[in-house]
Amino acid sequence: MAANAIDQTRRMLSLVTYLRERPGAHVADVARAFGITEDELISDLDVLPMCGTSFRGGDLLDIDTDGDRIWWRNPGALGADAAEPLRLAADEATALLVAARAVATLPGLREGDREALLRATAKLEAAAGEAAGASSRLSVTFESEGGVFAEVDRAISERRRLWLRYYSPARDELTEREVDPIRLFAVGHTYMEAWCRLSEARRTFRLDRVAEIRILDEHSAPPEIELRDLSEGLVQPSADDPEVVVEVGPGGRWVAEYYPHDRADELPDGGLRITLRTPDPTSLRRLALRLGSDGRIVSPQGLADSAREAAIAALAAYEGRE
Amino acid sequence: MAIAKAERLMNLALCLLGTRRPLSKRELRGSIEAYLEAGADDAFNRMFERDKDDLRELGLIIETVENLEGETGYLARRDSNRLPPITLDAEEAAALGLAAKVWQQARLAGAASGALQKLRAAGMPEAEDSYDVQPSALEPRIPVHEAAFEPLMLACRDRRPVVFDYRKATAARPETRQVEPWTLECWRGHWYLAGWDRDRGAERVFRLSRITGKVRSRAGAFTAPVPDAVTVRETVESWAGETATRSARIRLRAGCGYPLRARAQSVTQGADGWDELEIPYGHGLDAWLVEFGPDVVVLEPADLRADVVDRLRAVAKG
Question: Residue of A159, B137, B140, B196 with fewest CB within 10 Å of its CB?
């Protein structure tokens, strides 16, 4: 795989610099310093002895490991200054600077962390020189609720239980619950993953829907659970969830962008027939109302009926006043 | 078995970095085993050109110099490839470590770890070295699901014009757009591109999820000047109706509609189980109010009231 060869080359160039300063370094330490597995490091160490400035001249790198420690027997092979740290590439500077600037905008970030990040960003910009230029062409803003964020962050580090008043848009209601926070993450919005004592289950809470928050005296004791894999997207409907079919016109095509779905079939008028699954179809009544003339619920019938009834009830208030 | 690409790239990098004088292609071919095994000249030449491009992507500055016999030589000078001195303390290192984890896109995730490894090789301390640094519990992630992201990121970086098919939010069919891409911005988890739309002769913002098909590069340079500051966020906010121009008065059933209350300018409790709210009125408010069904009644302005009634009638018809 081409991408892997590039990442591996990049890593090996840094390894050469790193190992030269540390004769007899431990495999475990080096792997940790480089953020890679020991197996990945060993596979790099298998390649390095085939590398050098000339395979004929016999000046290949004599790097060897017994699986525990790493020895480089001819560190002079590259010449006196040939193993110095290399300048950052444009993509490297961009990846790190854009991420650092984005994280620094999180309103709930601890002040100490933010200051450290800003100091590091300034040093990095200086060291990257012109490679930092392209980083202004990419930017990321996280949204988060500062006060709520800080409380959750503190509760996690002090292992304390939280009391919340939380808004559920599906039911348009506020509920009170006690939760044991597990972690905070930001994907567009900022979320808390927690163990909910009320439902005895793992729940994800969007921080801008927390109406009130309090840190309790009790210790938090979330059960040992595997963290959700966020790379697959936040909403992961299960195969057992009921199916909902929505037909939208051209003005309702945005539904396919916002709701994870099983399929979206083109309709002749430029609309879409979207099939999705949700654990709680009643939560989609809001969507049906929002769509207006841009779409309708095809099934289940009960959901379509409840949207129609809600609209009729709402209209009554206007007709009485007109 | 063919020699692995990483081994070949590593050898080329070490040769170019280790030499004091430019090395000709012939010399490099004689020094690197994989090039000797490459076979015909054509195959070797193609491989060599690709490898140089790959090393340049990794940040290596490779110079080409012609010698007295007119032969081209290559070298990567130490002084132009050296990382300038940078000293980071353990807190700064930990903060960068947290930041580097935000990318979920393969190319940027690889580049971010590569940058940390270069800094580590340059002496950046490890977070574990310090016991008093306890990082925040936050795990920020930048989602990138759009296939158009990587080609557009490279086009913005290299200032290359592009062509793609784009389907506007309410259009049934995509249209071909010719764009000089300026910047990419992620807001509320979605990616947007700002650039110069050549056919419309104006600045435009595109949402990446609405790009259909492949992003293709166009030869040539930008024709319009690139502005110093690009206002992606303001444009997207006005699409999303966040830019309120007026205010509206509504009745809201007690205990309902928390998000409306949270952004209300004033809330007056009524005796009849209903409250009266004054809220900002921008684009899209009618659609949002309809979501609350019979729990919201619009009092004024009249145009908002009429829009809401129209929407409700459409749903009531079924």
Answer: A159
